[in-house]
Amino acid sequence: MRFNSFAFTLAVTFCLGLVLFTPGCASKAPAFGQKGYTENGKASYYSDKLRGNKMANGQRYRPGKRTAAHKKLPFGTKVKVTNPVNGKSVKVRITDRGPFVAGRIIDLSKSAARKLDMQRAGVVPVQMKVIKPAKND
């Protein structure tokens, strides 16, 4: 069997072209605030004493609504918050700013906290995932 250097060079060039000009297989993480964006940290929930107080979006806090506070996500963003300890999750709308305690990523309304079964603990580890970005009005 005779070695053909032209065929070898052509095959190597073809393979190198595939590697260089084919998009990578690694997926890019969703951008901040976009569908699929996730954060891991701790969640806490609002006290009943805050009932009726104005939130950062101008609305009044109502413990029965499934709302939440996040430091930077736009108001109106819908997120799914999951408690990995028990597997329970809840969908909430961002309506306020906070929490401003290190390690905490989201403050939940009482109704949302109840859904995650976190009322007794007060603060629990969670994963938060954007399921619907805020509308740009």
Name the features.
137 residues, 2 helices, 17% helix, elongated, 6-stranded mixed barrel, Barwin-like endoglucanases, alpha/beta, RlpA-like_sf, cell wall biogenesis/degradation, single chain, 28% strand
Itemize the secondary structure elements and their pairings.
Blueprint lengths: L4 H17 L16 E8 L21 E3 L8 E5 L6 E8 L7 E5 L1 H6 L8 E9 L5
CATH topology of one domain: Barwin-like endoglucanases
Q: How many DSSP helices?
A: 2
Q: How would you sum up the major sheet?
A: 6 strands, mixed, barrel
What's the CATH superfamily of one domain, by name? Answer: RlpA-like domain
Q: Which radius of gyration do the C-alpha atoms yield? A: 24 Å
Structural class: alpha/beta
- The stretches of 5 or more residues where confidence is low (pLDDT under 50) are none
Organism: Rufibacter roseus
Function: Lytic transglycosylase with a strong preference for naked glycan strands that lack stem peptides.
InterPro entries: RlpA, RlpA-like_DPBB, RlpA-like_sf, RplA
EC number: 4.2.2.-
Describe the structure.
- This protein is of the alpha/beta class and 137 residues long.
- The protein has a domain at 38-132: RlpA-like domain (Barwin-like endoglucanases), CATH 2.40.40.10.
- 17% of the residues lie in helices and 28% in strands.
- It has helices spanning 5-21, 110-115, and strands at residues 38-45, 67-69, 78-82, 89-96, 104-108, 124-132.
- It is elongated, with a radius of gyration of 24 Å.
Short description:
The chain has 137 residues and is of the alpha/beta class. The chain has a domain at 38-132: Beta Barrel (Barwin-like endoglucanases), CATH 2.40.40.10.
